[in-house]
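Before the break, one more example. Copy the sequence into your notebook; we will annotate it together after we see the structure.
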Amino acid sequence: MTRRLDIANLPEFDNHEAVVYAVDEKVGLRSFIAIHNTNLGPATGGTRYWNYISEEEALRDALRLSQAMTYKCALSRVPYGGGKGVIIGNSHNPRKRHLFAAYAQRVNILNGSFYTGEDVGLTADNLRVLEKESKFVIGRERIAGNPSPWAARGVYYAILAALQAVFGDSEISGRMFSIKGVGKVGSVLCGLLYERGGKVHVADIAPEKVKSIKRKYPRVEVVKSSEIHKQKVDVYAPCALGGEFNKKTIPQLRSQIICGGANNQLASQEDGERLHSWDILYVPDYLANAGGLINVVAELDKRGYSRRRVEKKVRGIRTTAKKIIE
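Here is what the structure looks like once it is written out:
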C-alpha cells in the first residue's frame, strides 16, 4: 500500500481544487493529476512522464506545474485553468502502451474538467495512445501538433521584449545567448537566435543532442551543463528542467536577462526577489513559454483550429512581456 501523503501541508499546495491519484497495478501505472484552478474554464496542462524518485516528488511536481498553468492561461488570455498530469516513469516496463491507455481512462473519469497533451518524457507514439483512448487530449498530430516549436517562438518574442527593456533595442545580431537544454524547445530557440546572428552557447546532458545542434549550427559554442549558467552573456535561456535558480546559483549568474522555456525555474518565490536584487531581469517562465499552450488549446476553439490566430496570439507574448516589465 502507498503511504498517505498529507497534501495540504506540502509547500506546493495552493488551494488546489482537486488532486487525483491514478493507479493501475496491473500495468504499473502510478500517476497524479492536479487541478489548480478552473475559474476561467476547464483545467488544461500536459502530462509529464518522468523517473521520479518517489510518489511525493511526483505529487509536488504536479502541484507546482498545475499552479503555473493557471498563471500561463490567464496571461495568455485563453479561457482555461491550470492543471497537470505526471506519470511515474519506468523505462523497463514492457506494458508501457497499456500504461498510457490506463492513464487516458483516468483522464476520462474527469469528464472534461481536465484536458491534457504532450509534456516532458512523452513521445508521439505515447500521445497517439492517449488520443485513441480519450477525447480530452489536445495537441494532436494532425491538428495542432507538437507544442514545442510554438513554446520556443514564445520565448523568442519574450526575449525581444526583454532586450528592448534592458538595452534599448531588440537586436539579436551580435548579442550573446546561452541555452541550457537543446531538446524540443531549446533546439528550436537556438535556431531562431543563431539564424538572426546571435552568438549562442549551448549545454545538454545528452551528448547526441549537442552533436546534432553542432552539426546544424556549426558556430555554436558547447559548454558543460554545470557551467552554462555562469557564462557572461546578454540572455540566459534555461530550457531543461526547473528549480535551477536558488541562493547558491543566482550569485554565479553573469547574464543580464533570464528568459527560457523551462517550467518553474525558481526554486522558491524568494529567488525572484534575489534575481531582482542582483539586477537581473527575469521573464516569468509561464509567460515566456506559453506559445505551446496557445497552440494546443486552439484545437478547442469552436471556430476550429487556425494557425493564423495561433501565430498572432503567440506574437502577442512580446506585448504582454513588455507591459509586465514596464
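The first strand starts at residue 18 and ends at 24. The CA atoms of residues 139 and 296 lie 5 Å apart. Try to locate both features in your own notes.
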